[in-house]
Give the backbone structure.
Amino acid sequence: MSLEQLTEGVREKVSSGGIEESVKFDLGDTGQIFLQGSGVSNEDAEADCTIKMTAEDLADLLSGELDPTAAFMGGKMQVEGDMSVAMKLGSIV
């Protein structure tokens, strides 16, 4: 899945309301997805919480094939910054 497709997938998930805090998905060489509220972009900005994972794992997360807790516990997702923000994000994805 391309960065544009993943960005659109995140945009669809937060279209009915995101979270107030900022979150950045760091997808390594693929790029990044920054979200705050229902706004989604590919800017590389400072965020309250940064989630590092592969583009493939994010695609699985967005499709429901990968559980956020299982991804974290299995090492497929690393969280930097405010862990409570990552927990809020779990209710969206």
Q: What stands out?
A: Strands lie at 19-26, 32-37, 39-41, 49-52, 78-81.
